[in-house]
Amino acid sequence: MRYTDAGIPMPAMLELLLSKLESARNCVGTGASAPIKKLLNQLSRREFRDAKSLIRFHEALLFLRAFPQSSSLVGPVEKLLDTFHQRVAGLRALGDDLSAFDDFDTSGIAGTTMQDTVNFEVARWLVERIPRNVEIPWDDYDDERAMGSVWPHLIPLLEEDSDVEANIPWRRWLDAARGHDGDLQWLLRQFERLRYPGRFNAEIYDSLRLPLRWHLENLKLSRTRNWQRPRKFFFHRKPLIQRKDVSLREELSRPAPRLVRLSYHEGEAVMRWIREAMVVRYRELYGTTLGDSRSVLRAEVGRGVIIYLWNLPAERRLPLRAYVAGFTLKNGVPINYIEGIGLCDWMEVGFNTFYTYRQGETAWIYAQALRCLCAFTAATTFSVYPYQIGQNNEEALDSGAFWFYRKLGFRSGNPELEELARNEEKKIAGDLRYRTPRRVLKRLAEAHVFYDLKSGATEGKMRGAWDRFSTRNLGLRVNRRMAGEFNGDAERIREASVDQVSRVLKIHGKRWTAAERRALENWSLVLALIPGLADWSSEEKREMVAIIRAQAGASETRYLRLTQRHTRLREEVLRLGS
Length: 578
Fold this sequence. Notes:
Layout: H1 10-23, H2 33-44, H3 51-66, H4 71-82, H5 84-93, E1 113-117, H6 120-129, E2 134-135, H7 144-150, H8 159-162, H9 170-178, H10 183-193, H11 200-207, E3 211-215, H12 248-253, E4 260-261, H13 264-279, H14 286-289, E5 297-302, E6 305-310, E7 322-330, E8 333-343, E9 346-353, H15 362-377, E10 381-384, H16 386-389, H17 394-399, H18 401-406, E11 411-412, H19 415-430, H20 438-444, E12 449-452, H21 471-485, H22 490-505, H23 514-527, H24 538-551, H25 556-565, H26 567-577
Helix pairs in contact: 1-2, 1-3, 2-4, 3-4, 10-11, 22-23, 23-24, 24-25
């Protein structure tokens, strides 16, 4: 056991210093930075001999970089982060167990290696972004059935061997075909060259379930260094804003934030940044992988916070709902991602703050994200999916996610669970030591929670209109019709629905683009369920045609706003989907 000059065991001293640094984020006021700089100086000279302690140091540094108390802290913190990969290398040289770096919330640290099975788009992006640092770990892959199904599309005459022989030398075939290219680079290029319709190329690649391994070294895309200098820092000289200090109603009643549309090249930079932030956290989100660089908006909402939002390109849009993705920077550090999926005036919102920053004004930043979504989409009813509040999500249960949303003003969409929540609130009010049991939190997480923005929604007919709605209900209703009337034939129901709806709405779809025809096909499946569609007014029919075409147009937000203005459509969608 090694000791300090004061006779304190080294591990105990390191634990003491780390605990002080982790508590330092609550230090504010004049002189608060001096003890933090002293701690940083002391820790910078310590030798870390285990991964968990080094990870704690790393997360504390990242938090201080995002929420600094003064300008004098920024330089020392950035210097420590820029050289952090050397500490990981030192730990590796000691032969320590590095598996702690692979955890969901601790991955992506400079100097470590990551491995995961990613989709075609992410694989292609990784090869473009870090070609010399990404590879296929063949020792961890042996899916011969997948290779036998897919590789013959890429390698001439492989069927002669794979269809009838045993013990196929897959790597020899690949080495013979790829020439001087790397395995992964050659495979991806071959998939890009396949002449299949739509996204089939990517789907074939994804069926391989091919793992990739990427070495972060001291790359800028690592979590450690994936930040930029903002135009102006915000320094926290007063205590951080707590959840109890945030009124969602007041925040949403403020003037809408200014949304600035970025150029295509600026949008591309934003999309590259969010992909970097996600891939080093083992996360893939549909809208962060496939976002439309032409649709990116930026909002500066104060306190060093910038929120970016964007839509999907026409060829990647969902059949019915509009999609918004985004992420938040705090003093130039990515701290969360956002997802909004909606129809008419309703939007389901996902908001995930990265583990490191969850003690950093999360409620206030969430309120700003909703303000931006309101300004961008004009949605007036927001819901949160049960998973976000604890359904099959142990992390959400541990963090008390239900109460995070409840205390901001969300209500349960299930009357019984709403009554249960009110009873729990009475217990808490009567005994400040009371904590909602885990079994009750699981029960409360069985239904969506909702926030109604319109002032009259609390008692008026707007309240609760979307409580029982789901696009899944719409889809299941369409499929039951397919089974009953078309003997389960998907092609027949599609053709019949398009013919029926086109006659009623007087659509000549042959003149439309491929994306518009796809939108017509999807919407026709739903509109064909409406018995009185032919009785709609001429104006309602014209507006419905405009909605269908807008769904494939340049602006997905315009499409969403058009659905909000069509009262008849909203009524029918709610009826069919509830």
